[in-house]
TrEMBL record, chain A:
Protein name, per record: Putrescine ABC transporter permease PotI
Superkingdom, taxonomy of origin: Bacteria
Principal location listed in the UniProt entry: membrane
Species classification: Bacteria, Pseudomonadati, Pseudomonadota, Gammaproteobacteria, Pseudomonadales
Membrane topology classification: Multi-pass membrane protein
SUPFAM superfamilies assigned to the protein according to its UniProt record, in alphabetical order: MetI-like (SSF161098)
Keyword Metal-binding among record annotations: no
Organism this protein belongs to: Pseudomonas mangrovi
From TrEMBL, chain B:
UniProt-listed PANTHER family: INNER MEMBRANE ABC TRANSPORTER PERMEASE PROTEIN YDCU-RELATED-RELATED, PUTRESCINE TRANSPORT SYSTEM PERMEASE PROTEIN POTH
An annotated GO cellular component: plasma membrane
Main location: membrane
PROSITE patterns listed in its UniProt record: ABC_TM1
Regions crossing the membrane: 12-36, 85-105, 114-135, 167-187, 223-246, 266-287
Residue stretches making up the ABC transmembrane type-1 domain: 79-287
Lineage, opening ranks: Bacteria, Pseudomonadati, Pseudomonadota, Gammaproteobacteria, Pseudomonadales
Organism: Pseudomonas mangrovi
InterPro entries assigned to the protein according to its UniProt record, in alphabetical order: MetI-like, MetI-like_sf
Protein name: Putrescine ABC transporter permease PotH
SUPFAM superfamilies: MetI-like (SSF161098)
Keyword Signal appears in the UniProt entry: no
Keywords noted in UniProt: Cell membrane, Membrane, Transmembrane, Transmembrane helix, Transport
Similarity comment: family membership: Belongs to the binding-protein-dependent transport system permease family. CysTW subfamily.
Length: 294, 299
């Protein structure tokens, strides 16, 4: 194999294609002039003027609040769904359930947004609940983020050694206890990953929030969108760069954290295997059916 | 004991099941219902299709919203335009993404994780912000960075029209959806057994032949997953055509948005969504089957 094949060149070109526009955005956010494209020296003034923009700042805190509650609920719901999909092989409506868990990944957001809004409006007519606002945005985000969590967590659940859970079960532990004390610690990295992913997805969402938010409850992307529609603005460059930088940092931390946990786990497994290999005869004995004690 | 176990089991299945039924499936029934209503000046702005009058329960189905879709050329154009744009941008993503995924899967383990992180990072960042970055670059006249750059180098003497063109929409779509093509392809390619390729080369197959006859067929599931993850959402995409596209590129997501927010025609928007869903239902089922195989580890 050649060292610099066609695919490697494509990979580097692709990465440049992905990252160059983002770098340009960040660099130009430090541009001092009013004209976005004419460089007139480094300046932080657009960042400073962000702090005075109370409308934008309110939207930032609103978005963070929704993202926080979304990530908690989506992890809980998505983990349950993943557990059902990987551990309960047969029940009525399983195919339907699997479909409902994975379909939100691809469903166009305009459809999900419109249909959820119509549901909320119909519910409000019938039972007077829910009012459009933070609550409805949270429900919409939780529904679609839990699908992502379910995919991440179920791939981890599938890799797990079932015998550990079974052993605990044989020793008389209740299913809930097994889940909380054995399964959850083993899948913890993917729970963190799912939670961070949900946080980011919720923070980023424009379409769902536009549909289901009532007037006056606009989130950060909704605010950005309404000013971006009018064209490029230096102030938006600054806020976009801040989001870009914080999400990158966030992703990097999530990745680092998960990798360290994985490494530690692998090392532990290796160590256990080394200790085991000394007494291989014992393991052979264990594999042969034991004499009936009980 | 078994009774209580059963109860716990029901609870575990029931919570996510009921949530998804209520907030994912039921809304589609409601959207279908409202697509048969008439637009009205009221809150909410549509008529009720179930009316109790003269001691009779009447269901009034108004088909006008659907007839409109067929009669007015703009809707038909928007559907066809969306499908065409989605098809070509999926193809572009596949052509660009496959070699990238292949290169990542062939790299050594340490490098793989770094590449994956670099590919995954953009998917966590708002599509809105990534598309916005292109607005600055593609801006028309002297306002665009690319135009100013090309003028400065002397490659062009007059600024090109870039923003609000189909080209800008394709760039935006490929840019936003490329990672969603690469990730499933990588997940598939990395599982391939290298010894098959070695065997083929020992038997005298050329690199390209063995790639085409072994690697590509084996990665079928990854290709399907990647293409569906790009094609289906792109058909309904709103942000990219809104910010980068002009009047030439009508896409159905944007038309639906305008119908809903600008014209406040809720039943019309609902009918547009129902037809879009009917078009997409086969790709969605295909994706779900593929995904179910992956989720259950049968692939």
């Amino acid at each position: 194999m050649k060292r610099f094949g066609f695919s490697k060149v494509m990979l580097w070109l692709g990465l440049l294609f992905i990252y160059v526009p983002m770098f340009i955005l960040v660099i130009y956010s430090f541009n001092g002039g009013r004209l976005v494209t004419v460089w007139s020296g480094w300046s932080l003034k657009w960042y400073a003027s962000l702090l005075d923009n109370t409308k934008l700042m309110t939207a930032v805190f609103r978005s963070l609040e929704i993202a926080f509650y979304t990530s908690i609920a989506a992890v809980a719901l998505g983990t349950l769904a993943a557990f059902v999909l990987t551990r309960i092989p047969r029940f009525r409506g399983r195919t339907l359930f699997g479909g409902m868990v994975t379909a939100p990944l691809v469903m166009p957001e305009v459809i999900t947004g419109l249909s959820l809004l119509l549901l909320f409006v119909t519910m409000a007519q019938l039972i007077g609940w829910p009012q459009r606002g933070l609550l409805t945005i949270w429900i919409a985000h939780t529904t679609f983020c839990s699908a992502y969590v379910a995919v991440v967590v179920s791939s981890r659940l599938r890799e797990l050694d079932l015998s550990i859970e079974e052993a605990a079960m044989d020793l008389g532990a209740r299913p809930w206890k097994v889940f909380l004390l054995i399964t959850v610690p083993m899948i913890a990295p993917s729970l963190v990953a799912g939670g961070m992913m949900s946080f980011a997805l919720s923070l980023d969402d424009l379409v769902l929030a536009s549909f289901v938010a009532g007037p006056g409850a606009s989130t950060l992307p909704v605010e950005i969108f309404s000013s971006v529609r009018m064209g490029v603005k230096p102030e938006i460059n600054a806020v976009a760069s801040l989001i870009l930088l914080s999400i990158s940092l966030f992703t990097f931390l999530a990745w680092y954290f998960i990798r360290r946990a994985e490494d530690r786990r692998k090392r532990a497994v290796q160590q256990a295997a080394q200790e085991e290999s000394g007494g291989w005869q014992k393991s052979v004995e264990r594999l042969t059916p034991p004499p009936a004690h009980s | 004991m078994s009774g209580r176990l059963n109860f716990g089991r029901r609870l575990v299945i029931g919570i996510p099941f009921v949530w998804m039924l209520l907030f994912f499936l039921l809304p589609f029934a409601i959207i279908l219902k409202i697509s048969f209503a008439e637009s009205a000046r009221a809150i909410p702005p549509y008529t009720d299709i179930i009316v109790f009058a003269e001691h009779k329960l009447q269901v009034l189905l108004n088909l006008q919203n659907y007839l409109n879709l067929g009669e007015k050329g703009i809707y038909l154009q928007a559907y066809l335009g969306s499908l065409k744009i989605a098809f070509f941008s999926t193809l572009l993503c596949l052509l660009i993404g496959y070699p990238m995924a292949y290169a990542i899967a062939r790299a050594d383990k340490q490098t793989q994780t770094v590449y994956l992180l670099l590919i995954m990072m953009p998917t966590w960042t708002a599509i809105l912000i990534r598309v916005y970055a292109w607005m600055t670059i593609l801006g028309n006249g002297e306002n665009g960075l690319l135009n100013s750059f090309l003028l400065w180098t002397g490659l062009i003497s007059e600024p090109l029209r870039l923003l609000n063109t189909p080209l800008a929409v394709y760039i935006g779509l490929v840019y936003s959806y490329l990672p969603f093509m690469i990730l499933p392809l990588y997940a598939n390619l990395v599982k391939h057994d290298q010894s098959l390729l070695e065997a083929a080369s020992d038997l005298g197959a050329r690199t390209f032949t063995s790639f085409w006859k072994i690697t590509v067929p084996l990665s079928k599931n990854g290709i399907i997953a990647g293409c569906m993850l790009v094609f289906i959402p792109v058909v309904g995409e709103f942000v990219v055509p809104e910010l980068l596209g002009g009047s030439q590129t009508q896409m159905i997501g944007k038309v639906l948005w305008d119908e809903f927010f600008s014209r406040r025609n809720w039943p019309g928007a609902a009918a547009l969504a129902v037809v879009m869903l009917a078009i997409l239902i086969i790709p969605i089922i295909l994706f779900n089957r593929n995904q179910a195989k992956e989720l259950e580890g049968k692939a």
